[in-house]
Amino acid sequence: MLRTFSTSEFVAYYRQQSGLAVTGSDCSIEVTDGIAVDGLIADALRRWYAEQLDTADPRLLPVSDVGPTLRPTAYAVPEGACRLVFPASTRRIIFVQPESTGAPAVPHPADALDEVLRMQDNPYTAATAAEPEAVAVAGSRTEIYLWPTVTSIASAMAVIDPGSDTFVLDEILLSRLPALSQIIPHLPTPI
């Protein structure tokens, strides 16, 4: 089940799970200088979450169908392809289902472009409406080339970053939260 946290809620959850929650209500401590531990934890959790968006099983993350928002653009190079530009919040493209095809296209990494281009030159290995091909555009996580050229997209599933102050993840990932020493390996020492 997906759960949604704000940054402050996620830091509080992390502190509680790590045994760092303040539980004493009969005393108070005031610190006027020192390390902003919650800030360090928030920054470290954001880095951990970004890594999860890029690598974890998509079933554990916020995935959206952005297909209706995509407008395929015919592209001269590579020949016969169209280019799709996904929303800026896209972290990872799962698949693209063109309107009139039988199978979805799972994007190959950018370094497979030359191989896919060679496949398009051969009528027996070229992409067809029944078996489209997709390749990520080098240097971009939000753009792909798609063969054959299409005019509309039925479905395009992508892992979406909900924003810098929001964490959406499955409870299974919550059980995989790293220890404090793993997310902040070298705590600064006071002078």
Describe the structure.
24% of the residues lie in helices and 25% in strands. The chain has 191 residues and is of the alpha+beta class. Strands 3-4-7-6 form a four-stranded antiparallel beta sheet, covered by helices on one side. Helix 1 (7-17) packs across helix 2. It is elongated.
Summary keywords:
25% strand; alpha+beta; single chain; elongated; 24% helix; 9 strands; 191 residues; 5 helices; 4-stranded antiparallel beta sheet
H-E order:
EHHEEEEHEEEEHH
Share in β-strands = 15-25%
Helix tally?
A: 5
Average pLDDT for all residues: 88
Q: Strands of the biggest beta sheet: in what spatial order?
A: 3-4-7-6
Helix content: 10-25%
The major beta sheet can be summarized as: 4 strands, antiparallel
N- to C-terminal separation? Answer: 45 Å
The structural class is: alpha+beta
Instruction: Provide the gyration radius in Å.
Output: 22 Å
* Low-confidence regions: none
Total DSSP E strands: 9
Q: Quick one: overall form?
A: elongated
Kindly summarize this structure in a few lines:
The protein has 191 residues and is an alpha+beta fold. The chain has 5 helices and 9 strands, in the order βααββββαββββαα.
SSE layout and pairings?
Elements: E1 2-6, H1 7-17, H2 37-55, E2 63-65, E3 73-75, E4 81-85, E5 90-98, H3 113-120, E6 133-136, E7 143-147, E8 153-160, E9 166-170, H4 171-174, H5 180-183
Antiparallel strand pairs: 1-9, 2-8, 3-4, 4-7, 5-8, 6-7
